[in-house]
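My main concern about presentation is that the manuscript never shows what a single data entry looks like. For the editor and my fellow referees, an illustration may be useful. For illustration, here is how one protein appears when written out as sequence plus structure tokens:

***
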Amino acid sequence: MRSKGMGLLCGIAALSLLFGSAEAQQTAPPPPTGLSIGPATVPRHWSKYRYPETIPDGATYYIIVRGDTLWDLAGKYLGNPYLWPQIWDQNRYITDAHWIYPGDPLIMPKVALVSERAGEAGGIAPGAEEAAGAGVAGQVIARPGAGEQLVPAIEEMALQCAHYVVSDGEDDSLYVLGSEMGATKVALSERDIVYLSKGSNAGVKAGDVYTLHHPSYDVKHPQTGRTIGHKVETTGWVRVILVQENSSTAVIERSCQDAHNGDYLKPFEKVSVPLIVKRPPPDRLTPPSGKIEGSIVDIGDDSMIAGQSQLVTINLGTANGIAPGNRLTVFKIMYPSVPTSRNVVGELAVVSVRDRTATAVVTYSGDAIMNGDRVELR
């Protein structure tokens, strides 16, 4: 009798737990999928971080699910995975960008700066039409109500041909052996036929497109002399037209500058042109932002000084939270020992980013911009 009574009590307890669990599942709303708009309360869950428990009114947010990465989310919602630092910058409770946890909220940037139609007039990222307004080809996209305009930071061709600085070596095993003209032609350009060092045994196929790259020189910090990385110039791109087992033949489709025997090749990747807000440049009265600072460490075309529309390299990258579309003030301190106020000489817009360096275009120059000039994130 005692055994039956105990069994009945255990059964009732089990049913109570079952119905209680079902009721809890019905009352706890499932996490939203995709982007949502605040205000909202974040359901309690386990996380390594002290995540925000509420979402502000009007903020666009996303709830992390298993398998997500900031890289993938930037590719999906901002149109370019290299923009992941923009998401991280909005969610600084995440102390290590390589580790994010299901259930944690991400406040998303309001405007995606990169478009699949990058470089086309009026191009804008998918899903950003509501934020930036509609436009037609040949017009600049205006953000309604803000009196601001989004414009391409740089021409697509100029960005496709841009130099960059790498901290580690790149694979240079596929390279230009020579040309149809033989040793008599030193500088190679558009429509020249070139021979490549690999063929079908290395996976090269007719129709493949590769960019051409020329290793240049070590880039050193202007003040410390420390080597930052190695400069690589993009000399153009080729299309493979004939493949043999151990070599292949290609035609140079576009030249950025003279190509040479020994230039190495990488699979072609179409660049994404960042869109930036058109606004007055900084001047001597513009107060410091208090954000991260760095330096100009190299100038394109091996120039001594840079002016408007010229490309430069800075010693800040994704490791510092820098992303394409960021704007930086360029300044000098004429008498550091005093010190005197800043002499603002220009402004940059970041157009491509690597781990510890970034390539930027000069959007405004009020004076000569030189290696060693300081930059500050606006």
Remarks:
- DSSP finds five helices and 23 strands in the chain.
- The chain has four domains: 35-107, 111-152, 160-267, 279-377.
